[in-house]
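Structure, all two chains, one model.
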Amino acid sequence: MKKIDKIFTVIVLSALSLTSFYSLFLKNQDTISYVENRTFKTNQDLSIRGILSGEFESNLETILSDQFIDRYSFVKNKNLVNYQFVNFIYKLIENPLVLNPVGETYVNQIGSTQVLMSKPILYSEIINQRIVDRAEQINEIASDYPEVEFFVYKPTQIQEKDFFDEANGIESGGNIYEKSLSSTLEVPYSSFKIDSIDDYVKYFYTTDHHWNNQGSYQGYLDIMELMFDGSKIPVVPIDESCKNGLKFFGTYSSQSGFVNEGSPFCVFKFDLVEYTLVSDGVLIEDPNDTNKYFDMTVTSEMDYHYNRAYGLGNGFVQITSNIDNDESILIIGDSYANPILPLLANHFKNIYFVYPINYKGIFKEEFMYDSFIKENGIDKVLFMYTIENYFLSDEWGDRYIDFDVKRN
Amino acid sequence: MLFSSLTFLTIFLPSVIVLYYSVRSLKVRNFILLLFSLVFYAWGEPVYIVLMILTVTINFYTTILFDKLKKQSKNKTALIVFTLTMVLDLFVLGFFKYANFIFSNLGLLFAIDLPEMSLRLPIGISFYTFQLMSYVIDAYRDDVKVQRKLYLLLTYVSFFPQLIAGPIVRYSTIEEEIENRSESWELFNSGFQRFIIGLGKKVIIANNVAIAANYVFSQLSLDNMTFTMAWLGIVGYTLQIYFDFSAYSDMAIGLGKMFGFHFLENFNYPYIADSITDFWRRWHMSLSTWFRDYVYIPLGGNRVKKSRWIFNIFVVWLLTGLWHGASWNFVLWGVYFGVILIIEKFVISKYLLKIGPLKYVYTLLLVMISWVLFNSNSYEQIFTILRKMVSLSDGIDITSIKNARLLYLWPYFIMGLLGSTPIVKRVLVYLKENALLHGIYLLFLSIILYMSLMFLISNSYNPFIYFRF
């Protein structure tokens, strides 16, 4: 026993000391933690001047942690251990509609399944009023431009639905908000339909807040119906590629520590007309291939950015297509619009997409509706952003204000 | 520097071991320990290290001085020097630890504006001052030989395993070993294994149950306090403070062994005590025996009139409370135990023998209430938590724990509850001493180490509770 104890001690102590030496002096320093969604500290953060203030000591500790050999596995395993502990209890809850928190932030899973979602949106008078105000802004600009057709389409999220009210003893606000929006709007309106949990699983990534290729295509069909009422034929997918079992780990995954299985990542292929795509002033080469938006180098579960997959995440996009009509459409939306934009190239000569928050961030100015509509001969305006962008303020700053219809 | 830090585990500890065992001379080895101990302290306390060295140096010379005076039969002068040394030690401790408290209370009492003393408490000052005082008192009593080498006294006081959070190792405990000790692989391995167990207690159990305790005591508003959350918080804190502090003692004792020292135990399963008197024989033993030997017995102990005996108990517990911090809730906490101990000694000790297993419930309940006093931020919080702990009508509400995202902590509570009893230790000793099962014991240690690293790498902040005392 003495001998084996001795071997144990020597191995463990040697491993510990070699670890720090390797982490500090030999390995290529990692700079980003996808698991925690933050940047790492590196050797460059060490400064002898910080010794007296304690900065050196705390930075060294953080660097040793951040650069630890195979750190990702340690962190992932810790999250997995804690997840297994909590899910053990969740499995004892019989009602499958009970929402159970996973991780340290806002993410919930439905029952003990691996389907993740955000917190249900509850009702509040203030939020309802914001929705009404936004709808009235849209009415006002629509009435000022009778020659332009205005539409509103809302990509519905599952947290708006009342599926979970009874099981969780809550009163969700999504249905009331939708009623407020639709009854106030004086322009054509429709929304994405989620009639069951199965719809959610079918149309959304179970580890991300965005819709998947099925969902975005259904959204495209809804929009076509809203704008053309069957008079134009939508494009039809000619193929579906699922990237050989690659799993997509979305924002819910990162927020919950990558404890759940990722969603399959699939993309549709379409037979689209030729078009050019300029994103924030930069010409995107070869935009005709929808797969272009899915970077084939995404092979790690740490790559969870929806926008990385769909390529955009920008403030202003202009698509110019080679079709015979001269119609122009302005879309005010959020990231849900990204996969739909190329499909509209088959129907519009000019497609302009504005994501107000990013627009303001990139161009350092507000997007002004009046001047843009007049200067670009806009025929149709489509508002298509999620309910959260109608009202969200407290958690994400005054985000909803950026979606105000700014006039000049 | 924390034992449960990657800096300590992967740089400091391997370095001190390699250097220490690369030389044969005990004198050089002691110098290496001293040097590393000073670095260890300066890592978290780069300024106040001067205060520690200065205090040790003054005590070193005054001790030699009164020893010399005693040998010259100048006993009165020796007593004066001894007294002045004690006064100085207590003044330094009092100044840094209690000045803010005294000034703010004087200001409140006399309704005057006194200057605010924004002094930061030097890390471990309560521990090293008490160690130093034990040396000076024992030297004055001729219980230990006066140390004639400053670096050895400094090594004793600053020895990194026990410097900043105990146990309070008396000079008499290591008097022999500091100048004549024998290290061995067996002792080293045993110490290292004890260290790993301590690390696991701290990082796996204490840090995780602390998440629940911190939530209840620091984040949950009093309006939202419920029966369930009050109990979650207090059970969490009860486990946290035990596993946090006893883990530090385990690591300290283990590290001591790795360098050939034998420190006394500091905890003996306090949560299975059958009375508060028994609890204090098992909890932070180095502190309670310190107060017993240097305060209680010199005051006359129990060999005095009943009223004086009560007074002695009261004084000891008032001081025990104050030792933990300059705050009224620590005073209240100390007095609380003083009163219970007096009641136990004079009234209920005979009844405790008759109530069977209920005496354990009685003890644990009183201890848990004491932690509410100890850890609360305000009197309002104390009363709210205590009130909610008995508001059975609220019922148990697991949903509130779930919604606070704390439900995943349940295994750590179970580990804590099991680890508070000798069961786990007995199993480990059985595995360790059985030749066939020894591999399982080492595998268990490896899992503890892996899990500890897993948590350390994931959570960068994990201070020890007793660092603030």
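Chain A touches chain B at residues 1-2, 4-6, 8-9, 12-14, 16-17, 19-20, 23, 51-52, 54, 57, 60-62, 64-65, 68, 71, 74-75, 77-79, 81-83, 85-86, 89, 100-101, 103-104 (CB under 8 Å).
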